[in-house]
Automatic annotation (TrEMBL):
Pfam families: CBAH (PF02275). SUPFAM superfamilies: N-terminal nucleophile aminohydrolases (Ntn hydrolases) (SSF56235). The lineage of its organism: Bacteria, Bacillati, Bacillota, Bacilli, Lactobacillales. This is Conjugated bile salt hydrolase-like protein. It comes from the Bacteria.
Amino acid sequence: MILMCTSLTYENSQGDHFLARTMDFGFELGGQPIFMPRQQKIQGDAGEFTTKYGFVGAGRNLSHYIFVDGVNEYGLGAAALYFSDYAKYAEKAPADKLGIAPHDLTAWVLGNAKSVADLRELITTVQIVAKPVALLGITVPLHFIFSDPSGDTAVLEATDHELKLIEDPVGVMANSPQLSWHLQNLSTYGTLVADTRPLHDYQGFGLKTVGPGTGAFGMPGDYTSPSRFVRTVFNKHYSKPTTDTPSTMNLLQHLLDGVTIPKGVKLKPDGSSDYTQYRGYMGLNERAYYMEPYDNLELQRVEITDKMLSDWDTPVEYPLEHRNHIKHLN
């Protein structure tokens, strides 16, 4: 079972920061936006833990609430992506650390850290423990990307028992291998540009152009993790800057179009299809979560309000509308 996802951060010209991701999977996860209030006790699969801060993200209530991405009241955003063959977890936590199941880490982070800098200190107090998630019956191999309103972005890869955040200079993450491998692999494509490359005559023969876009010749177009990483970095780097939240959300949708997987085009050995079940967008400055399911390309938004933080004490689920909107012009 392999889950393939892509994520990226973005800063618009107003200085507002965003974190976006695709959720690509074959098994129907059934996630929806959920608001988790402050001061919650969560009976995680590696033991109970508490949260301090309110947050909203994509999740599901199984034996307890499990989140795969979201943003909290301080604007810290988080997303969990598959990390097959590379994630390594401890069998149990040492006595001086809190044990956290990999699928519970997103909720713990959003509920307890104010920023990426804060998380760099807090992450030393926990240990990710190999515990299966009931929905899938396996221990899920995950790595994580975090970003906050300052633009500070880091990745957590549990490749050994020592947990530490890794700087992500391009603000993009996909799946295996490690981030360091993806960054080195970018060198292979370091000559790609958005401009049109000039053509040269060969043996006196004048070549005819195939049109604009020749600067990106050689950019990989498949759905493997290395290819999705390269395409996302390229498109993010060369995309026209945006000026406000609506235009930024529109750009992020288009950037994720480059790695969104339609049903049927990426088959697994058993014949089932991985596809992009939803795309999640976190407005870090506005403390808002946007979810875009496969069957409805309209953004569905939940914003954390002061009233929610001060008055609400139980989790709230927001059912998604699964109906494609068509505007009739005549």
